[in-house]
Design brief:
73% helix, mainly alpha, two-stranded antiparallel ribbon
């Protein structure tokens, strides 16, 4: 009887080749298993970024109408007008002035070639709202890499130096617009410039973290403000002074709210894409 039991166990036991094939199948199942529901989808850096980004967006909505956010709103208005100026420059037009008003309005003046009026307006008008949103998304994406934060800090400082030049030498309605743009460019230029210089010279974890946090905060606030501004100016209400209304006049059979909805969807998609950075 014991001999029969041992033979039965030997017969039921898998051979060495069968054991190897079963091991390979287990390995293939483990390798090919979908990681969609894995809890380890984000590393520690990505989790920290998402938490900081959501906190900054929530802070923007909570402190939206407080005086603390007034400089950040004016900075977003500056990026709006600076985007108009950039588009006009790329269309080979001469920019003559950039203005920012205390009531969160702005103006970019440039010369228009009469032979290409339609093309230039089609390029310059969308650049304000969408360009301001892309500035915020670019600041958020730049914080994913230490070198990107440094480069982006330099780009922001250069843009503010250009703004300072137009505030002093450009066309403006009055002295208040000049002084406001000078103060805005000086304040943000000193803050971002100092953090960028410290990060280049010291190159420590603390300086990199300070620069990345500042750019992430400014970018999150700017992209939130710019996207909401598109909705408020072009979708929720119809304003004849808005860029969407002027753009709709150029396109036949197109309404201002349709243009605004298109811009709002594009801006929202850019915001979501920058939040899902690598």
């Amino acid at each position: 009887r014991p001999r029969c039991v041992s033979l039965a166990v030997f017969a039921l036991a898998p051979t060495r080749q069968q054991a190897r094939s079963q091991t390979r199948l287990r390995g293939l199942r483990t390798t090919c298993a979908p990681t969609r529901f894995s809890m380890d989808c984000c590393n520690e850096a990505q989790q920290s970024f998402l938490l900081s980004f959501l906190c900054f967006v929530a802070t923007t909505f909570l402190l939206w109408r407080t005086p603390i956010f007034k400089p950040l709103k004016l900075f977003a208005v500056f990026l709006h007008e600076f985007s108009h100026a950039t588009a006009a420059t790329l269309c080979c037009q001469r920019v003559t002035g950039i203005e920012v008003a205390w009531n969160e309005g702005g103006l970019c003046t440039y010369s228009v070639s009469q032979r290409r009026v339609y093309f230039i307006k089609c390029m310059v008008l969308p650049a304000g709202y969408l360009g301001s949103t892309l500035w915020g998304c670019g600041l958020v994406l730049a914080t994913a890499w230490p070198t990107g934060a440094k480069v982006c800090g330099c780009v922001v400082v250069v843009a503010l130096v250009i703004a300072l030049f137009f505030a002093v030498c450009g066309v403006a309605k009055g002295l208040s617009e000049r002084c406001l743009l000078i103060g805005l460019a000086t304040f943000f230029g000193v803050v971002v410039g100092a953090l960028t210089v410290l990060d280049f010279t010291l190159d420590t974890t603390e300086t990199s973290y300070a620069l990345e946090t500042a750019l992430l905060f400014i970018g999150a606030v700017n992209m939130t403000f710019a996207t909401y501004d598109i909705y408020d100016d072009t979708v929720r209400r119809k304003d004849e002074r808005s860029d969407a209304y002027k753009y709709a006049e150029l396109v036949p059979c197109c309404f201002a709210r349709c243009v605004g909805c298109t811009w709002f969807l594009l801006a929202s998609a850019a915001c979501v894409g920058s939040a899902l950075r690598p």
